2-aminoglycoside phosphotransferase (Aneurinibacillus migulanus), 176 residues
Amino acid sequence: MLFQNGKLKVRKLTEQDKYLLAKWLSNPSVLEFYEGRDNPFDVDKVNEVFYASEEDEVKCIVEFEDNEIGYIQFYQLDDEMKKEYGYFDETIYGTDQFIGEVEYWNKGLGTLLVTSMVEYLVEHKQADRVVMDPQTRNTRALKCYEKCGFKRIRILPKHELHEGEYRDCWLIEYKN
């Protein structure tokens, strides 16, 4: 287990989790803001994207009351990404997350998850800042992140290809 905050646990992804990811990432409600409804995942695609990639993300499953409910990943920004976002020498981490079990939406668990992850990154990874780049139209997520102490920094125009269209995103940050 990576960390626990009360009934919330975050643990590293295991091989068995591919079935959960395929379930969540084939749900149109989840895909509306994460990957796109035109981009559903089956187990083969989950294997390719989450297990075969060489990227430096730490990929995790989120549990609440011992039920697997979602996914979160974090990664340290490399120099190229720092430059793109306008940062320099600091230690900066990014995160991406979703609650895959929709019956757990609107219960404060996203706020608990993001707050707990920020605390983990600041305390254990010495993060100076934590950044995310949600789509500007994802108002529910933005409200959650702002409750967690994130501030909107600037618009990233046409930053993410989503459902066949390049979408504007917000660069948001939590500054330690």
